[in-house]
From TrEMBL:
Chaperone protein involved in the assembly of the mitochondrial NADH:ubiquinone oxidoreductase complex (complex I). Participates in constructing the membrane arm of complex I. Belongs to the Tim17/Tim22/Tim23 family. One of its GO terms (biological process) is mitochondrial respiratory chain complex I assembly. InterPro entries: TIMMDC1. The chain crosses the membrane at residues 100-121, 150-175. Its main location: membrane. Residues 208-227 are annotated as: Disordered. Keywords: Coiled coil, Membrane, Transmembrane, Transmembrane helix. This is Complex I assembly factor TIMMDC1, mitochondrial. It comes from the Eukaryota. The gene is Timmdc1. It is a multi-pass membrane protein. The lineage of its organism: Eukaryota, Metazoa, Chordata, Craniata, Vertebrata.
């Protein structure tokens, strides 16, 4: 039962597949990697932005259309008319906001998963990763429209991915290091710390073993002298 405790710590992953598997693995404190958390945060932000983008214009249009159609209708009072117009706008806000929300969130999530996966697998952060991720996402979203849709999705995704990737790279450079560089540094520091702790435990074990061996030899010598 003590072997795993005193086993030599495993070095940081060197192959791309090992780094990809680690991307979805929790650490000792049950925390997900920062890249995975950022993907979830970006999905939520994109969903909220998509909802506002699709919902607010639909709210205003539905409210204006309700007012135009209801000139001949009777309401109990002005407040009742205003509330009815707002309810009509709210229904459109929820309906069309949801349509945009899940589409934008899905697009951004797929884009981030692919671009992050490429960066982790290749162990470098380049614009080509984002361009490839954008092209793949665009093709995936437009593949149901046939060859013309595939071509359009490929062009749109690439055009979207290049400036988005450039912006993300610039932001990471302004922070001093990219997420991949930060992850590699943390892996190296964590490995060096675990290695130092392992060597310390190993030294203590060797000292205790030597002490126990000396005590055993002394006991045997005493027994031999008594006999």
């Amino acid at each position: 039962g003590a072997r795993p405790l005193f086993g030599r710590p495993a070095p940081p992953p060197e192959s791309g597949w090992e780094r990809l598997r680690e991307l979805w693995r929790r650490d000792e404190r049950q925390r997900l990697p920062e890249e995975t958390v950022n993907i979830a945060k970006a999905a939520f932000t994109a969903g909220l932005a998509g909802w506002l983008y699709g919902g607010l214009p639909a709210f205003r249009q539905a409210r204006a259309s309700f007012i135009q159609r209801s000139h001949g209708e009777l309401f109990q009072n002005r407040a009742d008319a205003v509330q009815s117009a707002h309810r009509a706008g709210l229904r459109s806000f929820i309906r069309y906001g949801w349509r945009w929300s899940w589409r934008v969130a899905t697009f951004v999530t797929i884009f981030n998963v692919v671009s992050t996966g490429l960066s982790v697998y290749r162990n470098k952060n380049t614009i080509s990763n984002y361009a490839s991720a954008g092209a793949f996402t665009g093709v995936l979203f437009r593949m149901h429209l046939g060859l013309q849709g595939l071509a359009g999705g490929f062009v749109f995704g690439t055009v979207f991915g290049i400036p988005a990737g450039a912006l993300l790279i610039v932001m990471q450079n302004l922070a001093g290091e990219s997420l991949q560089e930060k992850r590699n540094r943390e892996r190296r520091e964590q490995y060096e710390q675990k290695l130092a702790e392992w060597q310390s435990r190993l030294s203590v074990t060797e000292v205790l073993g030597q002490t126990e061996s000396n005590a055993q030899e002394g006991l045997e010598t005493d027994r031999a002298g008594e006999s």
